[in-house]
Amino acid sequence: MSLAAIALDRRPSLPLYVYPVGLVMLLVPGLNLTGDWFSYLFHITIIILIWSFAYTSWSLMGRFGLVSLGHGAFMAVGAYGTALMWNYLGLTPWLAVPISVAAAGLLALVVGYPCFRYRIVGHYFALVTLALTEVVRQVINATRDHTGGSLGYTPNPVGDTATLMERLVALQFSDRTVFYYAALVIWAFGLYIWWRVDKSMDRYAMDAISEDEDAAASAGVWVTREKLKITVTSAMLTAFAGALYTQYQQFIAPDTVGGITISLQIVFAVVAGGIYVIMGPTVGAIITIVLTESLRIAIGVSMVGLDTTIYGVLLVLFIIFLPKGITGAFLDWRSRRRDG
User: Fold this and answer.
1) Which residue in 234, 282, 238 sits closest to 76, CA to CA?
2) Are 102 and 76 in contact (CB under 8 A)?
3) Radius of gyration of the chain (CA)
4) DSSP letter (8 states) at residue 156
5) How does pLDDT run across 64-84, given as a tens digit for each residue?
């Protein structure tokens, strides 16, 4: 690709369909609809926005062939780190969240550097990250006296009589609209990071690395550094999603913010939505959350693990028949129709 073509490809423009989606999302709270059904849908929308951000964070790595099954670990670090520092140290989430995010980045650096330095790639890298997820889950369960183990963990509430300043310090609000706008801003921030990476020269370096590491290195690409940059960024953003999830739900457990179930859910959502499209992870979040809620309403807890089984089966089907995901397949179809 010529330098002129690269410069043209890096023009600062977002896909046009992102703008109307963002505008509609901004107007949702202004509808002032009432009723249990609207409250439930409003809650589901917030959950979708939070998970969309987490899925977008994973896709930063996944789109370049770095298939991580360890993002459940990073999300758990963000979630439990924030809650534990609030409960035991009285540290406001305004400080606990950055510390937890930095801890997740450090964990990614510790795990990622030896992997990239010694060329642990492909399914071997996936297995290493899978082991990381299990290690973090086991640590949470082993320290049940402090983390609640498999029973879950709840940040100390400020109470119904708390003042606005106390709620602001604790980042605990009874009005879901606050969390909606917070989740919306963070979701948009995730899209911005994805777009910035896509339009940066790092993208071309990572594309070259994913095709042939030796050829990329011979062309002057610092392979280990580039991989670490994208991995640490992805891990820190995922931990941020875990921290936000904690503040909104006010309850976390190893199976809701960590473990292989969450890691598999992340991979499935991104592949199903479209790993190479900016809105793909968001579409994947809609699919997974709606599927999870539908199963919960239909069968309750009578068949534990059914959602994980369905994720696995659908993941195989999407990889075989729709490798670009729903969003990617739709854009390809629209392009063929326009050209034809």
Assistant:
1) 238
2) no
3) 20
4) P
5) 999 999 999 999 999 999 999
